[in-house]
Design a protein that fits this description.
By secondary structure, the chain is α/β, with parallel strands linked by helices. Helices cover about 40% and strands about 15% of the residues.
């Protein structure tokens, strides 16, 4: 698989680098005593780890995040408390609820950093380690999160734009399905860096029929659009419907995967996906907190740990498709 990794930011392969942190939990469980003092994994740790995301109900992307987190909790003997709300103020409240319930660690997405700043700071003040993942790569350190796991979204968008330009694309339409998300905005900004005529459109990602209608109208209005860039696999499937109904001859690429989008890549309906490996994000976020609580570890050495981006296209879809169908890719 072709990986795009900048200097100064660690890839997932650098997880062997660990450095001691002074952060410790203000929550209930403490590291096990007796037999195993090695700091290794496994067993019944007794830790409770909260995961709070900006998931929009029905978006299959988050199934993979949660599946990875649940597997990590199982592997480390931790209890996972998962909650979500796409509204920034409600997500902040969920973080505060986790703090008030005295969890041992918190993993959260940081799609709207300013709105979450006070709740993230409150976790630190309570002595609860908190890590960011999926969104907020440029803001997590300023907010006080200890570690970060995700993709460099501007790099991902720029690389996708370069590939579009190499194919002769001149007027991409970048589809933003959630207002105010720094990750989605960074993706479209990256595409525009490589293809200056890129145009953004805002849609309501919580309503598939509304997405189809908005895209159909735009494509009918402007036949010069030669590429559609969707920022989530469910939106890509909506875009396919809109393209068919509008008669558009544009090519489609997407960020992220689900089983339907993976099959569409195999069938030639989607050119390629830019994959950030959400299962890995969920898994590493929970595992990193377990290791920090049990053994004072810091994964990444002060830098974000990249889980992407990478291309999924017809050259490697036969390898990836079974994993997508299994809800782990």
């Amino acid at each position: 698989m072709r990986l795009i990794t900048p200097r100064k930011i660690l890839g997932a392969g650098a997880l062997v680098a660990v450095f001691a942190l002074t952060a410790c939990s203000g929550g209930g469980a403490q590291p096990e005593s007796g037999g195993d003092d090695s700091g290794g994994g496994g067993g019944d740790s007794g830790y409770t780890i909260a995961m709070v995301t900006h998931e929009t109900p029905g978006d299959t992307f988050w199934d993979k995040i949660r599946a990875g987190a649940e597997q990590a909790a199982k592997d480390t003997g931790a209890k996972l408390q998962y909650s979500n709300d796409p509204a920034a103020d409600k997500q902040a409240q969920l973080i505060q609820t986790a703090i008030d319930s005295n969890v041992d660690g918190i993993a959260t997405t940081l799609a709207t950093p300013d709105a979450l700043a006070s709740s993230v700071a409150a976790a630190g003040e309570a002595g609860i380690p908190i890590v960011g993942f999926n969104s907020g790569i440029d803001q997590y350190q300023d907010l006080g999160a200890l570690m970060y796991f995700g993709s460099d979204e501007n790099l991902a968008g720029h690389t996708a734009g370069e590939r579009i330009a190499e194919d002769g694309g001149e007027h991409p339409l970048c589809v933003i399905q959630a207002a105010g998300s720094v990750a989605l905005e960074a993706r479209c900004a990256g595409v525009k860096e490589a293809v200056p005529a890129t145009e953004n459109i805002q849609v309501n990602g919580a309503d598939d029929s509304a997405v189809v209608a908005s895209l159909q109208a735009k494509l009918q209005q402007d036949p010069s659009i030669d590429y559609i860039v969707t920022l989530g696999a469910p939106i890509a499937m909506d875009a396919l419907d809109a393209m068919e109904q509008s008669g558009s001859e544009a090519k489609l690429i997407t960020f992220d995967l689900n089983a339907d989008a993976a099959q569409a890549i195999k069938d030639g309906e989607i050119e390629f996906s830019i994959d950030q490996q959400p299962y890995m994000q969920g898994y590493l976020a929970v595992t990193s907190l377990y290791l920090n609580l049990k053994n004072g570890n810091d994964i990444g050495g002060g830098q974000p740990v990249l889980t992407g981006p990478s291309f999924v296209d017809q050259s490697n879809i036969d390898v990836i498709l079974p994993f997508a169908q299994n809800n782990t890719r």
